[in-house]
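Could you join me in thinking about how sequence relates to backbone shape in a protein? Label the sequence line and the structure token line clearly, so we can match residues to local backbone shapes. Once you have written the record down, we can walk along the chain together.
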Amino acid sequence: MKILVCISHVPDTTSKINFVNGDSEFDTNGVQFVINPNDEFGLTRAIWFQEQQAANVTVINVGGPDTEPTLRKALAMGANEAIRINANPTDGFFVAKQLAEVVKTGDYDLVICGKESLDYNGGMVPGMLAGLLGFNFVNSCTELSIDGNSAKAAREIDGGKEIISASLPLIVGGQKGLVEEKDLRIPNMRGIMTARTKVLTVLEPVAADNATKAIKFEKPAPKSAVKLIAADNLDELINLLHNEAKVI
């Protein structure tokens, strides 16, 4: 079984976020980047298939040379090989088009994406990729097993979960639950050293239009100062909750 895991290169949640060029572009200066958490759950599940069912795991990213440390980390975690499509991931449709070309030529049985990236939270790429390829698709996936050419998956829905069976090839939009957090892989020294010799292929992008354009980003408004109300002044508290905060 050949598995392709799509990896997004995203800012660590502890990073301070700023924008430049009239708040139209993300400022990467001083920002620490990591593997997108939803993608990390998918990668860990793929490595489980590698260990239990002799699957071959390839990781792929659309991005510049600055994303290669993230791909090398994925290789250190256990992926067999990596692909970097040498392009700026300008929007979801552009990324999906690039990934689709690799899937078409690579004859992959299973493609695992995160259901959304931690930076833009667009949640577009897995579904677009499935649409472009005509593959079966399961989003918000929390469980996945493969038996021959058949897959069984569970996806999170309002109030519970839905169990789905599908045939390969399959695209999955994974999330927390696909593996337990305690099972996430931390690269050890042997994995880090081995990753240096694993194949990292750089491909040039195919022609594709951008379907969307970011016009401006806005950070949340600063929180207002705290108002302290005397413990015995319930009338004032109720008045503020009702007329100012409008929560009652």
About this structure: The two ends are 57 Å apart (CA to CA). The first helix runs from residue 37 to 53. The chain has six helices and 13 strands.
